[in-house]
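To illustrate the input format used throughout this study, we show a single complete record. The first block contains the structure-token representation of the backbone; no residue identities are included at this stage. The design step must infer an amino acid for every position from geometry alone.
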């Protein structure tokens, strides 16, 4: 990719960030080299950090994103780890798609770690999505494991195949 194309791509990224009101584009630095976008600077929440990255991923021509954005919480948003853990546990408890007590929360200096087992990938994603927007969250590590009943799916396919084979004979 030429230098001129990188410059054009950088402008496209800046325009998209500037267009979305969820992110303060003035606080985000953008560098582009060979279609890889590097984001620098600081945003006011972990949710804004994720949103900025997702905006950039949607820009045509971007092949990768290095998200080096830091999170600087406003003084009014500071909460201690105990309060963040309580808020995260409560948010998870309200999820109707999540079995009760399937995901546990730990918090260290505003960084949430999720642990546990769920049956489906969408449940793992839902757990992360519901806690990342909480006030004072600096980041999320999602260690939730998906424990699908793969053998059950195979049994259904086998039974369907047997029914189809029996009918055709």
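Output of the design step:
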């Amino acid at each position: 990719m030429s230098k001129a194309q990188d410059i054009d791509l950088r402008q496209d990224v800046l325009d998209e960030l500037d267009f979305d009101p969820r992110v303060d584009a003035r606080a985000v630095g953008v560098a582009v080299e060979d279609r890889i976008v590097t984001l620098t600077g600081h945003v006011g929440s972990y949710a804004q950090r994720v949103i900025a990255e997702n905006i950039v991923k949607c820009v045509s021509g971007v092949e990768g994103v290095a998200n080096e954005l830091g999170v600087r919480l406003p003084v009014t948003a500071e909460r201690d780890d105990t309060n963040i853990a309580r808020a995260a546990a409560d948010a998870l408890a309200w999820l109707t798609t999540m079995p009760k007590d399937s995901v546990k929360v730990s918090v260290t200096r505003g960084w949430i770690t999720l642990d546990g087992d769920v049956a489906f990938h969408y449940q793992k994603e839902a757990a992360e999505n519901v806690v990342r927007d909480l006030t004072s969250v600096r980041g999320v590590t999602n260690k939730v494991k998906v424990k699908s009943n793969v053998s059950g799916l195979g049994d259904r396919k086998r039974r369907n195949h047997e029914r189809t084979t029996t009918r055709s004979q």
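Structural context for interpreting the output: The first strand starts at residue 28 and ends at 33. Residues 102 and 120 are 12 Å apart (CA to CA).
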